[in-house]
Design goal:
Keywords: Phosphoprotein. By secondary structure, this protein is an alpha+beta fold. The chain folds into 3 domains: 134 residues, 3-Layer(aba) Sandwich (Rossmann fold), CATH 3.40.50.2300; 108 residues, PAS domain (Beta-Lactamase, 2-Layer Sandwich); 160 residues, 2-Layer Sandwich (Alpha-Beta Plaits). The strands form 4 sheets. Strands 6, 7, 8, 9, 10, 11, 12 and 13 form an 8-stranded antiparallel β-sheet that branches. A 5-stranded parallel β-sheet has the order 2-1-3-4-5, with helices on both faces. Strand 3, helix 3 and strand 4 form a beta-alpha-beta unit. Helix 13 crosses helix 14. It starts with a strand and ends in a 7-residue tail after the last strand.
């Protein structure tokens, strides 16, 4: 083992030399002797000892106590006080119980040897502990998520830079404050403020996940969706010493989820409901008609006339622009409570809800044909189009939306056989 490097602080020169000689005879490396605490600070900064032997009557000098604390707390170097028994008796109670910190005079060579070994062991332990703390602090501070550590009372002990950034609180301002005051959380699903989660995990000893739809209200009023959990902190014997809250801004994830949901139910080109969403709304309409005998609805199935010719003549880019324009025209022909959907290619469907009879559906079909018949100008080109439309009305025989939609499709097919710009109402007798 490497011999510890020692600095001796002694205001009596002869006593200092005597301590130095004794230590060196025991195999220790005494770097220097100084006679004041002020010069000791400079020596510590210059020569970086592992241990400082302080032989000044500190019980009578508060200034020396302060400088000794700087050596121990700021430089993280253990101080072994060589003091008279009378001075020791005058020490504050909290000082008397510090382990490995005092050697009472007069002392023998064996006493000095044992005291230095114990002090050096304490130095090594403190150094290792400090290194672990610094390593852990570096890891926490470099994390991309926010970390907040609390005491067992639920009050804040530390925050990393990301937590400061998200909450709007600096660590020195937040220290000692209730967690819920600094990390102001709202459960959006329950529409209620989330209480101090630290006290909950400290009481139960269990990890608690943040609510699924949790929002952080920052100090400046920003609303940030966050997610993750809070867990109890345990020491080496399992006692809970606090709690650690880890969370991150999930705005992008939420936006991604919204986009995925939109992609699943809406047509990527026109923005209209796709077949999945249309069938879901149609199923709801069927269920509604079973509960309300007076409720009527209809499905219109549309197929554009000559769309392939438009693609062949002007290109697929123009064809896509044309479909978007058609989608807007179809939406203008129905009420806000009705649904216009695209099934792919040039096929569209319309769900007309709460109508009186078949005439309402026919009137909408005629309106659509009149609107589509108006000239459409795209990129300087005038395009004319029409559509064939099949109409199917609800009845007690429909339990699944696919059947009603299939019948509207059949009615459209029969209308198309008669020419362009036609419409037809599904008649079970004609289709059997």
């Amino acid at each position: 083992m490497v011999s510890p490097k020692i600095l001796v602080v002694e205001d009596e020169t002869a006593q200092g030399l005597n301590i130095k000689n004794t230590l060196e005879s025991l195999g220790y490396n005494v770097l220097d002797i100084t006679n004041s605490s002020e010069s000791a600070i400079k020596k510590v900064a210059d020569i970086h000892p592992n241990l400082v032997l302080f032989d000044i009557p500190l019980s009578q000098k508060n200034h020396d106590w302060h400088l000794a604390n700087i050596i121990q707390n700021d430089f993280h170097i253990h101080v072994l006080y060589l003091t008279d028994y009378s001075d020791y008796l005058n020490l504050p109670k909290n000082r008397k119980h510090e382990l490995c910190s005092y050697l009472l005079k007069p002392f023998s060579e064996q006493d000095l040897h044992l005291a230095v070994e114990m002090a050096f062991s304490q130095y090594q332990f403190n150094k290792k502990e400090q290194e672990e703390k610094e390593k852990m602090s570096a890891i926490i501070n470099s994390m991309g998520c926010a970390v907040v550590v609390t005491f067992t009372t639920g009050h804040i002990r530390m925050m990393n830079p990301m937590a400061e950034r998200l909450t709007g609180w600096m660590q020195q301002e937040a220290f000692g404050k209730d967690l819920a005051e600094v990390v102001n959380l709202v459960d959006q699903d329950m529409d209620e403020v989330v209480s101090n989660l630290a006290t909950q995990v400290i009481q139960t000893g269990e990890i608690v996940s943040l609510p699924e739809n949790c929002t952080l209200i920052s100090r400046d009023g920003r609303e940030i969706p966050i997610g993750d959990n809070i867990a109890p902190i345990r020491d080496h014997v399992g006692n809970i010493t606090g709690a650690v809250l880890v969370f991150q801004d999930v705005t992008r994830r939420k936006q991604g989820e919204v986009q995925l949901l939109h992609n699943a139910f809406y047509d990527g080109l026109t923005g209209l409901p796709n077949q999945v969403l249309f069938l879901d709304r149609l199923k709801l309409a069927i269920e509604r008609s079973k509960r309300r005998s007076e409720y009527r609805f209809a499905v219109l199935f549309l197929d554009l006339d000559g769309f392939q010719e438009i693609n062949d003549r002007f290109g697929h880019g123009m064809g896509d622009d044309f479909l978007v324009a058609i989608a807007h025209r179809l939406e203008s022909c129905v009420r806000s409570g009705d649904t216009v959907g695209r099934f792919g290619g040039d096929e569209f469907a319309v769900l007309l809800e709460d109508i009186r009879d078949v005439n309402d559906a026919i009137n909408v079909a005629k309106r659509i044909q009149d609107t589509l018949g108006l000239p459409l100008t795209l990129n300087g080109q005038q395009i004319l189009t029409t559509a064939c439309i099949g109409i199917a009305l609800n009845s007690d025989s429909y339990d699944e939306p696919e059947g009603l939609l299939r019948n509207a499709d059949q009615a459209m097919y029969l209308a198309k056989q008669k020419g362009k710009a036609r419409y037809g109402v599904f008649n079970r007798a004609e289709n059997n």
